[in-house]
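agent> Task received from the user: take the single chain below, predict its 3D structure, and emit structure tokens. No templates, no multimer pairing.
agent> Plan: (1) validate residues, (2) run structure prediction, (3) serialize to tokens, (4) report one or two observations.
agent> Step 1 OK, no nonstandard residues flagged.
tool_call: predict_structure(input=
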Amino acid sequence: MKTVLLLSGGMDSTTLLYYLKNKGDEIYCLSFHYGQRHSKELESATKITELTNTSHKIIDITSINELLQGSSLTSEIDIPYGHYEEESMKSTVVPNRNMILLSLAIGYAVSIKADNVAYAAHAGDHHIYPDCRPIFFDKMNEVSLIANYEPVNIIAPFLFLTKGEIAKIGKKLKVPYDITWTCYEGKDEPCGKCGACIERKEAMEEAGF
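)
tool_result: status=success, residues=209
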């Protein structure tokens, strides 16, 4: 299979890269600079694709940032600390992000005659992020199959897995988590207090790291 992968540089999409490569897919990674708070994940994505010798494009769509305000990831709003289950984490939702990025990835897939577009939505995201829920995935895939003369499948192999289960897969595949970046803040070291850091730590512990 020829697959376009949305690669953020975090642990989930990096694990998905290794998972799909292990299946034998031909992968074309796509990352976006959409005006997010920092570029640490994009730096990680570059390191990962260089390490795995995988095709990688970073697309600059920063001008779109002014249309995606109101999120603590795109605006001057404090990053909330605490667990993903907390109501405050809703401030990290970027308006319509996955629909926008998946649409661009579908266009790329059509242009290179790829079969699939993959993204690393998982069960731990369902509570906070509407665009990571099964119903969004199902509807988006339906649209993708009719939007062009060339149907493109959207796949989300981790949709019903927890982050801990993803980490277990990554452990088996020897994913280099040390070069991935998950923290919502872009400091020299992860903050350890934001929802992303806390969830990552719990997942790593569950997987036995």
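agent> Step 4: summary for the user.
The helical segments are 11-23, 40-52, 97-111, 134-146, 163-173, 195-206.
agent> Done.
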